[in-house]
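Researcher: Let's try something more involved. This one mixes different molecule types, so please make sure each is placed in the same coordinate frame as the others.
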Amino acid sequence: NAGVTQTPKFQVLKTGQSMTLQCAQDMNHNSMYWYRQDPGMGLRLIYYSASEGTTDKGEVPNGYNVSRLNKREFSLRLESAAPSQTSVYFCASSVEGAGAGELFFGEGSRLTVL
Amino acid sequence: RKEVEQDPGPFNVPEGATVAFNCTYSNSASQSFFWYRQDCRKEPKLLMSVYSSGNEDGRFTAQLNRASQYISLLIRDSKLSDSATYLCVVNPYNQGGKLIFGQGTELSVKP
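Model: All components are placed in one shared frame. Result:
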């Protein structure tokens, strides 16, 4: 079973370049999330989508945009990458809101901004 | 003060040892609590939810102390395969999407 699939798994960008991280889930989940993980910081929520057609800011949304394309797909865009955005990015999904149950994570996308 | 705080470790223990992790949270209105496990360079996975009455799953026991605002995870009879980072997770708002993750506690079980 695929679960949550993220692409690309690795990416190197130069400062100022743009890119989109793709995420798709095949579990018919309503809610989807984007987190970033940095050493010593834990996972921090960037944006989430409680249901198709809605998106909300998380803890660290600056420099990012998201699109909930349909129920399956939730993309994260960096319009002008900065070295501070070097991180591991995780997409996740859940049946309903995160507080009610389990989050299922993708394998992560490792982004380096030079 | 961080919303969720954990001792980052690492905790280095021999096989068969009992090890306990604590986690404190700052929002007294928090409703949902979880422990996730993350293997090196992998994604986090739910280990167990934490209920007010405490709960046990095999060698793992989770407890919640609302008065002191901390949760704990006890691992008995540690196995080599328990080596991982354990993430304390809190939903401080009882709303979808707002999970707060601790920085994680690293456990290394040695032969």
